[in-house]
Write a structure and sequence with these properties.
The complex is a heterodimer of chains A (about 110) and B (about 110). Chain A is mainly beta. Chain A contains no helices and 11 strands. The chains are: A mainly beta (about 110), B mainly beta (about 110).
Chain lengths: ~110, ~110
């Protein structure tokens, strides 16, 4: 398995501001992902964080709104830019282990935009 | 049609009961399958991978039927601590994981 930490665990932000969420893994992994989960909903994939290149975004998500960094194989950040109340959600990072293809999640960041 | 579908529940069962969840997937290229459980306000945690031959882990049994494109999870002797949302996940070859909407289980004393 993998141990993943995220910072911050929660935040309350004003609209129009930006928040950067950090994700740290205890081992080197190739595949890292960022998800969003609205209350009572399942997970929606935002993007795959690629080390050394631009992230791969899913339909409906764009780099200007959700810039992602992946400077190495153990760390990634997701920024939620120019926030609005609709961005209030839980943001989760995850990693996929190459050998088993199992996916493990960080504890999530609960974001509230007022 | 959603790629991965599950009965949303909720399933309300008494302690000690056996409960079964079904999940269907539409992409026949799906190769990897998993069950996750998610407690309220927590992240999803891997419960078990699902293999073609089926697999069992204690009270939990997962089955895969490729011909019918469905996955099942059986929980025997339910405990109060089994109360959670169970997420079915399929992964087509070369593509990203696809999560189902989840099935909520409440085990009642």
């Amino acid at each position: 398995s993998a141990v993943i930490s995220q910072k911050p665990s929660r935040d309350i932000c004003q609209r129009g501001t930006s928040l950067t969420i950090q994700c740290q893994v205890d081992s080197q992994v190739t595949m890292m992902f960022w998800y969003r989960q609205q209350p009572g909903q399942s997970l929606t994939l935002i993007a795959t964080a690629n080390q050394g290149s631009e992230a791969t975004y899913e339909s409906g998500f764009v780099i200007d709104k959700f810039p992602i960094s992946r400077p190495n194989l153990t760390f990634s950040t997701l920024t939620v830019s120019n926030m609005s109340p609709e961005d209030s959600s839980i943001y989760l990072c995850s990693v996929e282990l190459a050998q088993t293809h199992e996916q493990y999640f960080g504890p999530g960041t609960r974001l509230t935009v007022t | 049609r959603k790629e991965v579908e599950q009965d949303p529940g909720p399933f309300n069962v008494p302690e000690g009961a056996t409960v079964a969840f079904n999940c269907t997937y539409s992409n026949s290229a799906s190769q990897s399958f998993f069950w996750y459980r998610q407690d309220c306000r927590k992240e999803p945690k891997l419960l078990m991978s699902v293999y073609s031959s089926g697999n069992e882990d204690g009270r939990f049994t997962a089955q895969l039927n490729r011909a019918s494109q469905y996955i099942s999870l059986l929980i025997r002797d339910s405990k109060l601590s089994d109360s959670a949302t169970y997420l079915c996940v399929a992964r087509p070859y070369g593509q990203n994981f696809v999560f189902g909407p989840g099935t909520r289980l409440s085990v009642l004393p």
